[in-house]
Amino acid sequence: IWIDCMNGDSRETGKLTPEGKPDPSIFSTDYNREGIRVGTAIGIMARAETRSEQARILYREFWGASKRVDLVGSLKAQDFEGHYEPANPEKSNRYSFRPSRVSAQYSSWPKVPELARRHFNGPVERRGLALISIDREALESRMRSYFDPAVSDEEIQRIYPPMMMTGNRIVGPDARKKILATFHYDPSKIVRYPIKPMDARWCYLENLRPLFSEPSPELLAQRTISNNTFFVTRDTADKSEEGAPFFFSRLVSDYDSISGHARHFPVFVTPQESTAPPGGKGQQILLVGSVARDTAAEPNLSHRARNFLAGLGLTEPKELFSKASLIWMHAVAIGYAPKYLSENAEGVRKDWPQIPLPDSKKALVASAELGSRIAALLDTESAVPGVTTAIRPELKTIAVISRDGGGSLDPNKGHLALTAGWGHAGKDGAVMPGRGRSAERDYSSEESKAIEEGAAKLGMTANEMIKLLGKRTNDIYLNEIAYWKNIPTGVWEYTIGGYQ
């Protein structure tokens, strides 16, 4: 079996070659620019007269505007099969016809769930954002109305129809009657709630079935632990452009906050009865204690993780409590390392990510310190020196709200209205994404100077910083006059958990 992968998937915006160039469909012509929107592959299968036990599968890829010419030209190559890589479909790689791109050590590393005692699915609202809003006041108003017996069902239907929806998991009049008999409006239940990475909104978050479709009550219980935080990942990727498949938050995040569904790994968990390792072997440590006053909790570390820490000399319960986040912060650092993601792309894509563990306490602490810096950047609820306060020089010029042609912007006159085609009204109230309006350009002299100054303060060269930010930048328009000035390409295209 010979597989020629022609790529060319245009269903997702910004689909490019690995070098960042346009990647049209191989069926694109002057008469039909779009070609075939889905990515395509050519399979040639030959059955030998005498069949072997194992099929021989060869794979190669073509990218960019020249792929049709390259494909035809490859037929003249003397070493034709030398252009292919062998593939080995088996259960461990879900019988993929693509070669596995993983490091030799990857399979020996523990999967994320093997580091934890427990993990939990994020909440599932599925009520048309009835319980989620960008505007806190709007959410408070409709929730107060819902819990007010004096407000009729018909009025609730008028205020926000999904709150009275019927059909699958009915939440109509009968459900409201039962809810009002058990629950009352509690303003403390309105909390910050990431529905996507860096997109935290307001949510009425309570174990409020059936109004809240799946509130994940066991996960909500972990919020009672003071200052608890959550490492978030998924079991398999469901987007090809996934980026880092990890998130970290002090907030409970939505089930769909990352593609593949958000699985939460709290740093601390509420206690469960301690059990011995399988077979009764290994060191058993009872870790029920307090993270904060009057809050019972224990580190969310599996026996494997605890034995690993014990091997580094971290054996005392008090020390384990103070160092409980080391492994999770280390996992954040690993998960955002470009080399880890590129060298193990196939392994990370097909299953739970697997995390290498350092061989010394010093290395673990150093990695965890780096991970904590990344976690701070992901935390929308806290200030980050140099980024949100005392802003570094190269960041001061990024994403400056500006007016085309100069001048001021007045929000009261609609100058910040989002009308540049980033979304369009679809059927039944759905919003369909659009291409919007952006303009790619070179950095201005002022922006280049800021990069040089910022790089020098970080001990970098300007070229090193530009390699990270991107060689060019973009102006991203809200409407015909207002735009975010200077969003470098590397920033604009950065992806976390499958979302730009």
Structure overview:
This protein is of the alpha+beta class and 500 residues long. The protein folds into 4 domains: 100 residues, no CATH class; 170 residues, no CATH class; 93 residues, no CATH class; 100 residues, no CATH class. 25% of the residues lie in helices and 17% in strands. The protein has 15 helices and 20 strands. A 4-stranded mixed β-sheet has the order 2-1-3-4, with no helix packed on it. The protein has a 4-stranded antiparallel β-sheet with strand order 5-11-9-10, with helices on one face. It has a 4-stranded antiparallel β-sheet with strand order 15-20-19-18. Strand 16 and strand 17 form a beta hairpin. Helix 8 crosses helix 11 and helix 13 crosses helix 14. It starts with a strand and ends in an 8-residue tail after the last helix. The relative contact order is 0.10.
Write the layout of secondary structure elements.
Layout: E1 2-7, E2 40-44, E3 57-61, H1 67-74, E4 85-87, E5 120-121, E6 132-133, H2 136-146, H3 153-159, H4 173-182, E7 190-196, E8 199-204, H5 217-221, E9 230-233, E10 247-249, E11 263-266, E12 268-269, E13 289-292, E14 295-299, H6 303-311, H7 317-322, H8 326-335, H9 338-343, H10 345-350, H11 361-378, H12 393-396, E15 400-403, E16 423-425, E17 431-433, E18 438-441, H13 445-457, H14 462-469, E19 473-477, E20 482-488, H15 489-492
Parallel strand pairs: 1-3
Antiparallel strand pairs: 1-2, 3-4, 5-11, 6-8, 7-8, 9-10, 9-11, 12-14, 13-14, 15-20, 16-17, 18-19, 19-20
